[in-house]
Design a protein that fits this description.
The structure holds 2 protein chains of 2 kinds. Helices cover about 35% and strands about 30% of the residues of chain A. Chain A is α/β, with parallel strands linked by helices. In chain B, about 80% of the residues lie in helices and about 0% in strands. In chain B, helix 3 runs parallel beside helix 6 and helix 3 (about 50-85) packs across helix 9 (about 205-215). Chain B has helices at about 1-15, 20-45, 50-85, 85-90, 100-125, 135-160, 165-180, 195-200, 205-215, 220-225, 230-255. The chains are: A alpha/beta, B mainly alpha. The interface of A and B includes residues 98 and 107 of A.
């Protein structure tokens, strides 16, 4: 392979746009700078544009506008170079049920031009990683959902990729399988120096795994940062109020309070970021009574990524 | 090219494992040969130069063509299913030319069609068809069936790329499948047809694969059977052109589905 220079970025995208039809704008100008050897998690509701973004970065779809590079290779002009550097797993399970696990891995390696020795050595190395040695010679149709996911994960690793794209790697799995896959992903980064991009439906997963989280909705990245940065940005505590009645006046008054760091009203939930929540409760409830807002439920908690998500997308995160 | 062979070998592994599929696809053409061949044979036998059994020899090429197109239709629906299930994405994310993805599929369709055609020919011989044993004839027949099923594979892959709906695929493909047989000289000579039908049969590639196979399968064909005035070389030209155009269309439709 010829000498190829990168700028330390595994993925770089500028103004990435995908328009399917006149009405359907799936990705609306996304910029990404993802450093090598990090884990980046993309969070967003269904239809936010995560999978379309992945499809463009993995060369399955051509962008309508904008550019993207993976390890310095352009995803359109140098698509085959990109393909040699990446491993991909898709949102849906993409396995031939009529093959045996070992065969699926073997055919995958053949597709990338690996020879027989390389393939069997790599298969022998990968199977123990996800504890599939015993199932390898069974038909995939007999596998459980978690086993299929694990098989797909190592299939993505068959060809020694440097960047791994995982679209919802733990969707529909039980908590135990999710935790295991999470551990594998962190290991890949720490021990093998991979860069991992993933989308997930599980807030806690993103919080634990990711070095950087990007929240995406309507085809745009709304906010990006480490999980800690995002959560700290909410304030030390967040007061969550559900209620009814006239809230406009109430929110204005809360906003005017000196200790209020942020206020959002979305999806029937008012979130107030404050320095120390429990000390402010009484004052805020009093304020609600004065302005005629009926409080049904109020709680104080340390903010989570879920609260960040609600603040930026205006939607509660639902699994 | 090695990617096409990889995909081909993967499909063959699945084909061997799925013996019901390969067996089931043969039922219809075998019934055609046996029931229609024997029934029509006894009806028309008297008027045929070689007697009752001759009709089976006469119609066998048409049934082989039907088998080949049936195999291609099955292959196209497999392709559609691999596309909608997302299995094609595994190939698309790999560093292989898009053309070889399509070729790998076409290759496995043609292989299955050839195997099934062989079974049909054997069944035909068992129930009384007489076939020229000359190896050159067999080679020529092989070229014709390969070209014909390649062309049909291209059409089926195009349909399988243009729609995401299995019902729509089958509705579309049925529009093609029946006329393939009836609007050709597979079951009756061209001269017995009304003019409009004859014109349709003359632009139907099935007519050429059938006529070509009659030349090759029947000893001294020109003396005993009506070849509708079509020369043998034209059969090869039309079938090879059909193979090329069918695959070209399949490739274009596939590339369009990626945008």
């Amino acid at each position: 392979m010829s000498e190829h220079k990168t700028n330390g970025l595994a993925v770089e995208a500028k103004g990435l746009v995908k328009r399917y039809t006149e009405e359907v704008l799936a990705v609306d100008g996304i910029d990404l700078d993802i450093a090598e050897n990090t884990i980046y998690a993309m969070l967003g509701p269904n239809g936010a544009g995560k999978t379309t973004t992945f499809s463009m970065l993995t060369t399955l779809l051509e962008p309508t506008a904008g550019t993207a590079q993976v390890l310095g290779y352009d995803v359109v002009k140098q698509a085959n170079d990109v393909r040699r550097q990446i491993g991909v797993t898709f949102q849906e399970t993409v396995l031939d049920q009529e093959l045996k696990g070992r065969q699926a891995l073997d055919y995958h390696g053949r597709l990338y031009g690996m020879n027989k020795e390389q393939r069997s050595a790599k298969i022998a190395e990968l199977l123990p990683l996800v504890e599939l040695e015993e199932a390898a010679d069974r038909l995939i149709s007999t596998y459980s959902g978690g086993m299929k996911r694990r098989l797909e994960l190592i299939r993505g690793l068959m060809t020694n990729p440097r960047v791994l794209f995982l679209d919802e790697p733990t969707l529909g799995l039980d908590p135990q399988s999710r935790a295991r896959i999470g551990d594998y992903i962190v290991d890949l980064k720490d021990k093998q120096g991979l860069t991992v991009l993933l989308t997930t439906h599980y807030m806690d997963e993103a919080e634990v795994l990711a070095d950087t989280v990007g929240i995406i909705d309507h085809g745009k990245i709304l906010v990006e940062g480490t999980p800690k940065e995002l959560v700290d940005g909410m304030g030390a505590d967040v007061i969550v109020i559900q209620g009814s009645g006239e809230d406009k006046n109430f929110i204005e008054r809360v906003n005017a309070l000196p200790y209020t760091e942020s206020v959002t009203n979305a999806d029937g939930v008012i979130q107030i970021g404050v320095g120390s929540g429990s000390r402010r409760l009484v004052e805020i409830v009093t304020l609600a009574n004065e302005t005629g807002y009926q409080v049904d439920d109020i709680s104080v908690s340390k903010p989570s990524l879920g609260d960040v998500f609600l603040q930026y997308t205006g939607r509660q995160f639902r699994d | 090219m090695s990617a096409a062979v990889t995909l081909w070998s993967k499909h063959m592994t699945k084909f061997v494992r799925n013996s019901e599929e390969s067996f089931g696809m043969l039922i219809q053409p075998v019934l055609w040969v046996v029931l229609f061949g024997i029934g029509m044979g006894s009806l028309l036998g008297g008027s045929m130069p070689g007697g009752e059994d001759f009709y089976i020899t006469f119609m066998l090429p048409g049934i082989v063509a039907l088998t080949a197109s049936g195999g291609a239709i099955g292959g196209g629906s497999t392709w559609l299913k691999e596309r909608t299930d997302g299995i094609v994405k595994e190939y698309l994310a790999a560093p292989v030319p898009r053309l070889s993805i399509l070729l790998g599929n076409a290759l496995s369709i043609v292989t299955k069609a050839l195997l099934q055609s062989l079974v049909i020919v054997i069944v035909g011989v068992i129930i009384g068809a007489s076939i020229n044993p000359n190896p050159l004839s067999w080679l020529g027949g092989l070229v014709l069936i390969t070209g014909f099923s390649l062309g049909f594979a291209g059409i089926a892959l195009a349909f399988g790329s243009l729609t995401d709906n299995m019902g729509a695929y089958h509705a579309l493909i049925m529009l093609f499948n029946l006329p393939i047989l009836f609007l050709s000289n597979a079951l009756y000579p061209l001269e017995t047809m009304p003019t409009w039908m004859r014109i349709a049969a003359m632009i139907n590639p099935t007519t050429y694969v059938v006529t070509g196979m009659r030349y090759l399968m029947i000893e001294n064909a020109a003396d005993i059977v009506n070849l509708d005035g079509i020369p043998l070389w034209l059969c090869f030209v039309v079938v090879i052109a059909f193979a090329f155009l069918g695959m070209l269309w399949g490739y274009r439709a596939f590339m369009r589905s990626l945008r």
